[in-house]
Design goal:
Elements lengths: L15 H22 L10 H14 L13 H14 L3 H27 L8 H19 L2
Helix pairs in contact: 1-4, 2-3, 4-5
């Protein structure tokens, strides 16, 4: 038996080609949505949360790391976006591309977590339980793609 057919093999040991296929499918779906949305006037960050985080990231990229107040939003995304803006300049299309790649990586992680979260202790060697866990991971990853 190899890693792809042995039900006792933990999900982290799944063949890399399967994870690459999941990543590629998720990335293609995100890129398709991104390119479809890029022709609309709502693509650029001109209002709402998109503008809030984009403006915050631009201030960080310009050197204002903090305003010494409590965070109003989630700072991790603003700092990540600021890193992108620092490297490539203010390019919302590049930032969207990086977001699509990050979300495809998230789908792979969700896909990997399904069997870990939904196979009960002691059932790791049960092929039916592992398939159910893999199905849950696949459905949860698919849900994230369309979220």
């Amino acid at each position: 038996m190899n890693a792809s057919t042995d039900p006792a093999v933990p999900p982290a040991r799944r063949p890399l080609f399967l994870l690459w296929i999941v990543f590629a499918c998720a990335l293609l779906a995100r890129l398709w949505v991104m390119f479809r949305a890029s022709d609309t006037p709502d693509f650029l960050p001109e209002q709402g949360d998109m503008k809030f985080y984009s403006d915050w990231a631009r201030r960080i990229a310009a050197g204002t790391w903090t305003d010494h107040q409590a965070f109003y939003g989630l700072p991790g995304y603003a700092y990540w976006l600021a890193l992108i803006y620092t490297v490539v300049g203010y390019q919302p299309y590049i930032a969207s591309l990086c977001q699509a790649v990050a979300e495809a990586c998230t789908v792979v992680v969700i896909f990997q977590l399904g069997p870990l979260a939904f196979v009960r202790a002691g059932d790791e060697n049960d092929p039916a339980a592992r398939r159910r866990g893999q199905a849950v991971g696949a459905l949860a990853g698919l849900g994230w793609v369309f979220c």
